[in-house]
Amino acid sequence: MKIEEFGEQMGADLAAAEIVAVEGTYLHRTAWEVWEMAAAYRNDGRVFLEAGDLVNAHASFTYGRGWFAAGCLIGLLVPARQPETLPFFADAIPLHLYDHLCEKTGRYARMLEEAYDAVDCAPDRESPLHEAARAMQQNASVSLMGGREWRTRGALINALGWFSYGYGFLDAGIRAGLLRITEKRHLFTV
What we know:
With 190 residues, the chain is mainly α. The protein has 6 helices and 4 strands; from the N terminus they run H-E-H-H-E-H-E-H-H-E. The relative contact order is 0.17. The model has no long low-confidence stretch (mean pLDDT 96).
């Protein structure tokens, strides 16, 4: 899939999603914030794309997609169709952006590793939300492993996507109160 296509698909998915929590409740506010973060990063991706920066566009789109998928997973957002995992991205990154892609992929790998180690489940083990928190951590872990695998294979654009996507899951989990920050608070969007 092309990065631009992915951004367009994400826009359509966001437009069709519904917030199911009753307006005026804390859950509605949380759902709105998760949707709003996904939409903001989708819009940032469009700005980067229009400026010719495929690297930052891709990181923005996939990070926003992590927020969106997390919101759907925990039931804050109801999508018109279930969000799929990330596709294979086939964009050729222009040579003048290659160093930027290498740097950003390495930085996002380190940031996701540190962020993953800096969170814990917030709800009590007996709460159904504890399982949701574990699912958030699991998605971040799978994304970290996926990013590492793509990076080993030299497919940096796909690696960056997976690292960004996993980071979106962690940040959404924190915003939703399912994960708590145990250290390195500066790594998170709170």
